Amino acid sequence: MKKLLFAIAFICTLSIQAQDNSEFKTQTIEFLKLTGTGDAFNNAIAQIGAMVPEEKKEAYTKEASGTLNDVYSKIADVYMEEFTEEDIAELVLFYKSDLGKKLSSKQTQLTQSGMMIGQTWGMELSKIAGKYAN
Description:
Helix content: over 70%
Mean pLDDT: 87
Strand content: under 5%
Order of helices and strands: HHHHHH
Shape: extended
Number of strands: 0
Oligomer: single chain
């Protein structure tokens, strides 16, 4: 009887943790969408789909967009390993603020500019390394 009660208690605990984890994941996915990640995904779908003939574009877009839930889930898992539920809740609040919305709207542009700066810097480092390699 004790084993049965223990098993029931254990299953209930797992069920509660799974529910908490589900809410945490939902909030983490909301956070990801607030950061502009969705725009980046939609841009990628459009860019990759540029090679799809116009008459098949709608079907392509529908199928490609259907993959987003899985991608969001996987990325959320990564964030959930690094941030607590409280952290994510605070980040959601921030990204819902005016400043957070501004950051989100500029994120893609900032990332692209940062990548260009990084590439230029990398070329500069290559020249410096080349000077010392001989």
